Amino acid sequence: MPPIKLAIVTLLLLLPSLVVSSPTEKATKKQPNILILLVDDLGFGDIGANGNTTIRTPNVDRIAKEGVRLSHHLTAAPVCTPSRSALLTGKYPIRMGMVPSIQMQVFPFTASQAGLPTNETTFAKVAQRSGYRTGLIGKWHLGAHCSNSKDFCHHPNNHGFDYFYGCLLTLLKDFSGLGESVLHSRFPHYYRNISLTLLATLASLGVGYKIGILPRKLCIFLALLGVLVTGFLFCLPDYLVRTVNSQLHRQTELVEQPIRFEKLTQRLVWEGEEFLDKAVDEGKPFLLFMSFLQVHSPLYNSVPGYRGRSAHGWYGDNIEEMDWSVGQILDALDKPCTPSSDNGGHIEETTHTGERAGGHNGIYRGSKCQGAVDGGIRVPGLLRWPGVIPAGSQSNALTSQMDIFPTLLEAMGQPVPSGIDGRSITKLLRQPQSTKSPHDFLFQYCGTLLHAVRWNSPEGVLKLRHYSPNWLPGTEGCRYICGCMEGLGSVRHSVPLLYDLSADERETAIVPADSERYRRLVPQILEAERRHQASLSSVPSQFTFAKLMWRPWLQDCCNFPLCNCRDTKY
After folding, report:
1. Is 478 among the residues known to form the active site?
2. Catalytic site residue 563?
3. Which of 72, 73, 141, 159 is catalytic?
4. pLDDT tens-digit map of 291-300
């Protein structure tokens, strides 16, 4: 498609994956165009702007050269579903019931009742009410249905996006068809344990019948039931996870199942370009959220010339292909922009051949799904605002992805609602050399548990850590991911650990608990915790077993019962 001709840039924000560009020739100054780009599982150290010299990301890096780099920018959660809910609403996920109290930290099925509550206000809803054409291309992972397969109550269309093309769930390793499985990675003895459970059950029934405790008919019924349940659990990875979860939707229509990786990168770009074309033709300001499926596993390359291109193997190839996508969208706008990540890189991830498939989090310790350490939540933050932000500048101030919501609303000229946790960083953008953060405290959750607290104190940025990930010896990761709960991937500290991040970003030296400084500072942090937790209201959880479980009547399936179709547009 020909590039979109926009008026000269008067406003451009990247927060961290955000651009508010100039209006089009037909748009008003009070209604800037908004482009948001988010990359799945991108590590802090995966881009050149944050010091990587061996992965080529020229389209991302030029934004830092022309704007500001936020070096202390955090997500509200260390994993995608809760993190994305905070990005859209400016609120801690716990305020919306978007945090797990169980080990399952994300929504596992499209055919479940879990999702972003319909009463939540997203920046897309605000933009839509303000006359914007709004679109989301790529990953959603915030739910689909409530009570039937046609209601789409949690769908992007019901959260402010006029147009949607992409994946209602997320990419899973199982989609590749290469024998990879996220279930096997998390539970490597899955099939063995199921088989042993069945054998033990059948043996127990046999003994019960032999000694006269169980009647013959009951034994036969329970044995058949056990075989059926075992068969279902054996089919679960291939059918429920790979076949029916692997979907692409255009609006609410299921257009591809399972997902074909052929030209998938290009298709997402083409959809974004087409959305921009239509917005300009209509003379409306636009908000486009490009939510890339890369660089989450399974790794794939669909653009010719990118497989085998990077010095960092297949994962590096994916990052460079993602950067190509960013460049294509920038060309369509004739102006630069940048991606960011929904959480830290997944350092434990591997491909089916054992090749490393997860990100690099720079100097920061830990990984995705680890809420206490910065490797799980510190993400790239690159912002460009011509005439306001000095080119090539850097800010070390403490900021959060929740700040996108109020800053965007200010840019659109809309009032910022009360009761949110994000803070506008417009003033900070005007003076990026300032270390004055809009936040005194930021609270780091993993599930429903408060793992750590950051304090932007007069003595620098401090962190009080209540939990630590239970890493495998000699590593900074767990077997696949670290769970949030004590004994299931995390360790609780009876005496919280205090770190001075201004002097020790890598968190290698604690402030001694018997020191005067510890005794003076920690009570102030604990009091801030108490006030924060007192501000939380009881809301229905979206992570109950009942909401997360697969429901056949909510399942989308094209060409039933084959559940197989491909997008005929491409």
Report:
1. no
2. no
3. 141
4. 999 999 999 9
